[in-house]
Prior knowledge:
Blueprint lengths: L2 H7 L5 H4 L2 H6 L15 E4 L10 H12 L2 E2 H8 L3 H13 L3 E3 L10 H14 L1
Antiparallel strand pairs: 1-2, 1-3
Amino acid sequence: MGRCCDMEARGGWSDNALGDIRPYTITGGRTRPRRKLHLTTCLVTRPARHQVAMNLESESLLLLCSASPRSVAELAARLHQPVQVVKVLVSDLLEAEALALANPSSPADPDAHLLEALLHGLRTRL
């Protein structure tokens, strides 16, 4: 019996059966963004200069970023999508100039000494 028939015998397609397929289709099969983005990268909507292929998630990203700057982490949480999926979509919208970085002057990587000092401080408080 084929896979399709097995699914029908179990009661049809369920959301769980398609759960792993949906993120793949949202990004067109891409798993890596074209730009390096961090969870704390903040974005704002701007008028698009180029035609942007829009799906529901891309439209939602633009709407969310139109009210105030939003971080990649917040966008992923609000869209209920994996962070990597949101990074791919955000990267596309940045390239189309439909989104802009709200904090472009922030450092790309945090200072290792600062992180070590923070970790030491947290350990001493516990």
